[in-house]
């Protein structure tokens, strides 16, 4: 490797490789580097040192496809790559990607750390506690007991110094510049409700971030209602009375988020996976990574893109033609979740026998509007009434027009009342081409 010219040694990072000097490759690379604010020069094997020694500056002329000696200094930026003219451009392109990735990742990580630390500096509260990474290693026994894997990281079981069981979620796949971490701490860090999972602590140490929750021994609702994919062998894990209690608990937790806090909390990711069950199978709403805060006086919130999980996202999050985004978007997600509780299946399911699709919400609406039996497993008197009530409430919640959906306060009242006080709502969706199959 040759000695660098004097003006190059002052750059932050310099890499020297050699490539063929054909004009097409050089022009494409120059355009790439201009967009990334990276200075690009070409160094030949002869002539550059003589040019530098005379007090001038060596560069590359794309028209002549040759090195030139200039009296003007090339424009500098954050890093430089000096190119020779002997071997192919593939290695060079690979190096460009690595250099760009390293600097972009490093800058992004620093910005995220500063953003998180600024938020925590303004987070004036005694609880939850802030832990160091070494604390987490002690709490989890060096991350020995893995209990779950989510979209944002891995969850480990542990025990706090006071003996309380805890779940530690290590945020590994961070998106949005640490925003999901800030959302979690900002929302559930300050609130306490029986049907909302409690945040006990957090860790923010460099690029390591984690959330410490109360431990839920029965994991998520998803584990129970989707335990069997075969509709003929699907066994209902809970009694209808217990399912009604679970639905009521989720509704009360959501009502608290919408009405009981100083600021309204919109969850935007209500689904069975995010409903945890304690030792008594009481539901706890969890995972506030997509949550958004707004004042109670505001009925509409601004959104730049849809957020949530496919199958539970309200239509207005995809297109404002359906209405404005508001707390009613969470109501839609709750309705879809409630239908899955009723059917003990995913709303879009596939039968094992012929692989035909079932869109359960439309199927259940058609059955109920025609006065037919719902084809659900009924064991004791009163079960059918509970099943119908849950289904009707769910169908009200998934109305495509947000103004036609009830608030979560009204949902709680509907669930507390009896079936006779409920009317079947208008059809909440346009007819689909999906084949309807009774089970």
Automatic annotation (TrEMBL):
Cellular localization per UniProt: Membrane
CDD domains noted in UniProt: STKc_IRAK
Domain Protein kinase: 141-423
Binding positions (ATP): 169
Key words of the record: ATP-binding, Glycoprotein, Kinase, Membrane, Nucleotide-binding, Serine/threonine-protein kinase, Signal, Transferase, Transmembrane, Transmembrane helix
Coiled coil spans: none
Residues passing through the membrane, by range: 80-101
Gene3D superfamilies the record matches: Phosphorylase Kinase, domain 1, Transferase(Phosphotransferase) domain 1
Keyword Chloroplast: no
Highest taxon, organism lineage: Eukaryota
Membrane topology designation: Single-pass type I membrane protein
Pfam family, one: Pkinase
InterPro entries linked: Kinase-like_dom_sf, LRK10/LRL21-25-like, Prot_kinase_dom, Protein_kinase_ATP_BS, Ser/Thr_kinase_AS
The UniProt record lists the keyword Secreted: no
Family under the similarity heading: Belongs to the protein kinase superfamily.
Protein name: Protein kinase domain-containing protein
Organism encoding this protein: Vitis vinifera
């Amino acid at each position: 490797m040759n000695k660098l010219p004097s003006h190059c040694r002052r750059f932050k990072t310099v890499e020297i490789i050699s490539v063929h000097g054909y004009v097409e490759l050089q022009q494409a690379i120059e355009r790439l580097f201009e967009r990334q604010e990276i200075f690009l020069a070409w160094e030949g094997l002869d002539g550059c040192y003589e040019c530098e020694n005379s007090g001038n500056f060596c560069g590359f002329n794309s028209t002549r496809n040759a090195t030139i000696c200039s009296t003007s200094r090339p424009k500098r930026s954050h890093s430089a790559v000096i190119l020779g003219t002997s071997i192919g451009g593939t290695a060079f392109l690979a190096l460009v990607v690595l250099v760009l990735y390293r600097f972009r990742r490093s800058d992004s990580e620093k910005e995220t750390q500063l953003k998180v630390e600024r938020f925590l500096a303004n987070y004036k509260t005694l609880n939850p506690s802030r832990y160091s990474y070494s604390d987490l290693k002690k709490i989890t026994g060096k991350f020995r007991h893995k209990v779950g894997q989510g979209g944002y990281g891995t969850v480990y079981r542990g025990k706090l110094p006071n003996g309380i069981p805890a779940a530690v979620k290590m945020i590994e796949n961070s998106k949005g510049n640490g925003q999901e971490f800030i959302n979690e701490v900002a929302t559930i860090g300050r609130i306490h409700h029986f049907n909302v999972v409690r945040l006990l602590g957090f860790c923010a140490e460099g690029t390591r971030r984690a959330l410490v929750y109360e431990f839920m021994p029965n994991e998520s609702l998803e584990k129970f209602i989707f335990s069997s994919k075969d509709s003929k062998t699907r066994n209902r894990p809970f009694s209808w009375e217990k399912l009604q209690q679970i639905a009521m608990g989720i509704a009360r937790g959501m009502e608290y988020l919408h009405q009981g806090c100083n600021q309204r909390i919109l969850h935007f990711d209500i689904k069975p996976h995010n409903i945890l069950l304690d030792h008594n199978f009481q539901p706890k709403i969890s995972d506030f990574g997509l949550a958004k805060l707004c004042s109670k006086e505001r009925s509409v919130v601004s959104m730049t893109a849809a957020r949530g999980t496919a199958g539970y996202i309200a239509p207005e999050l995809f297109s404002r033609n359906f209405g404005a985004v508001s707390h009613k978007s969470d109501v839609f997600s709750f309705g879809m979740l409630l239908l899955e509780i009723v059917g003990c299946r995913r709303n879009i399911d596939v039968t094992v026998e012929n692989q035909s699709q079932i869109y359960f919400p439309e199927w259940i609406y058609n059955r109920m509007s025609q006065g037919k039996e719902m084809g659900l497993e009924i064991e004791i008197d009163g079960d059918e009434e509970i099943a119908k009530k849950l289904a009707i409430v769910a169908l009200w919640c998934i109305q495509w027009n947000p103004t036609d959906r009830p608030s979560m306060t009204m949902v709680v009242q509907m669930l507390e009342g009896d079936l006779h006080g409920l009317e079947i709502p208008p059809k909440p969706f346009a007819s689909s081409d999906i084949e309807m199959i009774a089970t």
